Amino acid sequence: MSEEPRELPHDYDGIREYDNPLPSWWSGIFILTIVFAIVYAIWYGPGPGRSMHEEFEAEWAGYSTWKAEAEAKATIVVDESTLTTLAADSTALDRGRQLFGQNCIGCHLEDGRGQTGPNLTDEYQIHGMTRLDLYNTIRDGVPAKGMISWGATMQPKDMAAVAAFVSTLRGKNIPGKGPEGGKVSALR
In the chain, how many domains are there? Predict the structure, then answer.
């Protein structure tokens, strides 16, 4: 349905205007957008549609419930006896080794001999003397020395697994960074 544009009867400073209508498909899309906008305004205005704030609140409530349940399942009482038990559990040690490899080798190297962080294989410990002290150092970090706090990003059972794994490195005396801190007996 191609029509020749027709000349309109008015003249502006010698410029003549043609009546050249938009293609019908273009006009149809324009009309559909107007209809969509009206339906959208009714649905999300006074209608049953939820705003993005309401959707966020619903999703946040679901996430909070899920997180509370997950934390309840992951709760572990971290004390010296728990860490000693984990140090003898091969599954916990494998998990600790994996997490150590993902998060700690940048400063302590893959075998724990130390780079920017202290050597974890000698018989010296900077912060405390026990496995629980290792756990607390992992959880709280040492911001003054550049070690971040893993308590905000890692579950207590995972931090306990890392502490148990690190305690098994004690006494291997792999040559690396020199001794730092106080001398402790090997944690076995």
Answer: 2
Same domain, 80 and 25: no
C-alpha dist (Å) from residue 23 to 6, 28, 37, 101: 15, 9, 22, 64
Task: Note the pLDDT tens digit of each residue in 135-154.
Answer: 899 989 888 888 899 988 88
Average pLDDT of the residues in 77-96: 88
Rounded to 10°, the helix 156-169/80-87 angle is: 60
pTM of the prediction?
0.60
Cβ partners under 8 Å of residue 5, min gap 6: 18, 19, 20
Cβ–Cβ < 8 Å for 138, 162: yes
Q: What angle do CA 73, 129, 165 make, to 5 degrees?
A: 45
For residue 6, the SS3 value is: strand
Identify the CATH number of the domain in which residue 142 sits: 1.10.760.10
